[in-house]
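Batch job 17 of 40 flagged for manual review because the log was empty.
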Amino acid sequence: MAGPTTAERGERQQESSGPPPVRRWRPRALRLRTIIILAVVLVLLGAGSVWLLYGSQWLRVERVSVSGTRVLTRDQVLEAADVPVGSPLISVDTDAIEARLRRKLPRIDVVDVVRSWPHGIGLKVTERTPVLLVQKGRNFVEVDDEGVRFATVSKAPKGVPALQLTLSQPGSRAASLRRFGEDRLVREAVRVAGDIPAAVARVTRSVKVRSYDDISLELSDGRTVEWGSSEKGATKARTLTALMKAAPDARHFDVGVPTAPASSGS
């Protein structure tokens, strides 16, 4: 029996191999084109954003607001802040402004510099509050609740007691000064001033420091309080309040040892 002819073998090979493959180049080309378009769009958006923030006239500093001041004036704060009006808002160095304000105006305790889009800078100021006064010639140095001497004023603020450091005497008082230093003793006086009961604080004329553990109060009506050291301040405050109620006519109170308070005079 004769085998298949050459033509028949060619037909079988063509049937077994199937149709020629189709090249799928169109979807790949479309994806590449989409990627290129998106990249161009992103570049344009980025360039536009940079121009809007830094190059345009729309987002620049036009006004500066000040809030929270009590003693300082708005002009004082603005001058010390030196905000670059007219500059791009995004480029304003808020940390540098905060540093300038604290350096030039020690009365400022905390300051927050915020951008107020699209054209503003806000300066939110918290001033230090004096708890004691140190007389210096005819002026008064204000001391805050951290012992920081932050301002010198010509007129004593109302309701702030004077700090009297009587540390020049020989003996234990001089030794206390050498051991602790004046700054430490001032901080101890500040701690005492912060612990005085509110009703007593309102009539406290001065806080006297003779040594670390010899601090006393002089009230505006002439009464005195021996406080001792700044330790156990809250307990001493409660004891003093109870002692003054129990002996309203007394002129001298001693809470240096709060477990054994005493009062005297009438």
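Reviewer: the log was empty due to a logging misconfiguration, but the result itself is present. Helices lie at 6-17, 26-55, 74-81, 94-104, 172-195, 198-201, 233-246. Unflagging and moving on to job 18.
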